[in-house]
Specification:
The chain is of the alpha/beta class and about 475 residues long. The chain has three domains: about 170 residues, P-loop containing nucleotide triphosphate hydrolases (Rossmann fold), CATH 3.40.50.300; about 60 residues, Helicase, Ruva Protein, domain 3 (Orthogonal Bundle), CATH 1.10.8; about 120 residues, Up-down Bundle (Zinc Finger, Delta Prime, domain 3). The protein has 22 helices and seven strands. It has a five-stranded parallel sheet with strand order 2-3-4-1-5, with helices on one face. The chain has a two-stranded parallel sheet with strand order 6-7. The structure holds zinc ion. The site of zinc ion has 9 residues, from helix 4.
């Protein structure tokens, strides 16, 4: 096994899966390939589609081994990983497995060379295998040249392509290969995988720290192991959550929980104190806002779905906490709050006053808690109209009605009139409320239009009456007139 000059092999390479069974989270692909081998129905061209670090070229290499393994007289579903062919494919020295990086060999010349070599029989393997990574990077001419070979490849040749962007591959190529879509690794799979590797490496790492490592991997085994490499390098064989969070430049979840509590409790001082401490600690304001955004997004998910654990990448304990937090928000309040943070991101990049920008956002979030949607108000008014109070009154009227029918009827009539008057007045207030909102929106619009219409000429005209404006114009004769009229 190759290692760097300090004798340390990066984990992603050390633990690169050698058999189909070792591949994490892609059973739907590996099992299909193994069945194809058992049934002697292995195709000539395969395309592995998926985001980075999900195992595309790893699976292609294992398939190359399975086809060339010497443990049997023909391809085996489980390569032995001990024979000469298996070993040399693993260490990249096997002459009949040709790996090409599509990004740096994208021209027609490279594909022509490939075409010429295709005709030559394999040196020591059963099959000559071309693995082209990032195949979508090939030029149109290169694809055309490749197509001819793909149409009628010699029986000893197989093509395994890998891509992150299948839509850039011509349909003529796509129709000649069997496609496999690899999944982004499920968070729980990634979590237990990182745990297993850490145990293997004899690293003491608590569950909270593993959770952060798995989260940082965001669906990629390679990325998760790369983070694990870095934290081990930083803290040796005992890894804590703080170290991982510090390394990633993230902010501790506890900070977001505290901030959220302050917002929900309308505690301005406490909320601003969270911001102050984040800035003082030298945390990245953008990362902080992205973290808070993620927190509120999770609260929103917890608020709106039955099984949030299938969507939220957090521990069960933390999901419980999110569920509790969700009870303090209406759906509208959450959407409004998330919007506030989304708007802040581009602004934050543009300003030097980052602390002020963060404080402003926090104040807006606190204010957002007071927002009640018009729908809510209407719903409440309607429930007043038809609510339990009205029912109760009817009930009482009935009871009284039993005493003397005559009196009862009179009472009923009175109650009904009172009821109708009340309904009428509620309806009126709803109408008035609607009109108020409408006229306010219109007057705002008018004001805005008016504001744009004030021209320099008008101001000069105005200056005849207003000496203040006149003086300003005389003092700065060449200057633009800036509209400050509200
Ligand atoms: Zn073998």
């Amino acid at each position: 096994m190759k290692s760097d000059n300090q004798g340390y092999t990066v984990l992603a390479r050390k633990y690169r899966p050698q058999t189909f069974e070792e591949v994490v989270g892609q059973k739907h692909v590996t099992e299909t390939l193994q069945n194809a081998i058992r049934q002697k129905r292995v195709g000539q061209g395969y395309l592995f589609i998926g985001t980075r670090g999900v195992g595309k070229t790893t699976i292609a290499r294992i398939l190359a081994k399975a086809l060339n393994c010497l443990s049997g007289d023909e391809p085996v579903p489980v390569p032995c990983c001990a024979c000469e062919n298996c070993n040399s494919i693993s260490d990249g020295s096997f002459l009949d497995v040709i790996e090409i990086d599509g990004a740096s060999n994208r021209g027609i010349e490279e594909i022509r060379r490939l075409r010429d070599s295709v005709a030559i029989a394999p040196v020591s393997g059963r099959f000559k295998i071309y693995i082209i990574d990032e195949v979508h990077m090939l030029t149109r001419e290169a694809f055309n040249a490749l197509l001819k070979t793909l149409e009628e490849p010699p029986p000893h040749v197989k093509f395994f392509f890998a891509t992150t962007e299948p839509h850039k591959i011509p349909a003529t190529i796509l129709s000649r290969v069997q496609k496999f879509e690899l999944k982004r690794i499920n968070w729980n799979d990634l979590l237990s995988y990182v745990e297993k590797i850490a145990k293997n490496e004899k690293v003491k790492i608590d569950k909270a720290a593993i959770t952060v490592v798995a989260k940082a991997g965001s669906g990629s085994v390679r990325d998760a192991l790369s983070v694990l490499d870095q934290v081990i390098a930083l803290s040796g064989d005992k890894v804590s959550e703080d170290v991982v969070i510090g390394l990633l430049g993230w902010t501790d979840q506890e900070v977001f929980v505290n901030l959220n509590n302050a917002i929900v409790g309308q505690e301005v001082e406490k909320a601003l104190d969270v911001v102050r401490r984040v800035i003082e600690k030298g945390s990245d304001p953008e990362q902080f806002i992205l973290g808070m955004l993620q927190f509120l997004r999770n609260v929103m998910v917890a608020n709106s779905v039955t099984n949030p654990e299938t969507i939220i990448e957090e521990s069960p304990e933390f999901i419980d906490l999110l569920k509790k937090a969700a009870k303090n928000y209406s759906f509208e309040q959450l959407i409004y709050s998330i919007d506030i943070l989304m708007e802040l991101i581009p602004r934050l990049e543009a300003t030097e006053a980052k602390q002020t920008a963060l404080e402003l956002a926090v104040m807006k979030l606190i204010h957002a808690r007071k927002k009640v949607s018009i729908d809510d108000i209407f719903a409440r008014l309607e429930s007043l109209e038809n609510g339990p109070q009205a029912e109760g009154r009817e009930q009482r009227t009935e009871d009284r009605g039993q005493k003397t029918e005559d009196k009862g009827q009179k009472a009923e009539g009175r109650e009904q009139r009172a009821e109708e008057e009340k309904k009428e007045s509620i309806k009126e207030s709803i109408e008035k409320f609607k009109n108020d909102i409408k006229s306010e929106t219109e007057s705002k619009k008018e004001k805005k239009e008016k504001k744009q219409e004030v021209s320099k000429e008008e101001l000069i005209e105005k200056s005849k009456e207003d000496p203040g404006v006149k003086t300003a114009l005389e003092l700065f004769p060449g200057s633009e007139v800036v509209d400050v009229v509200e």
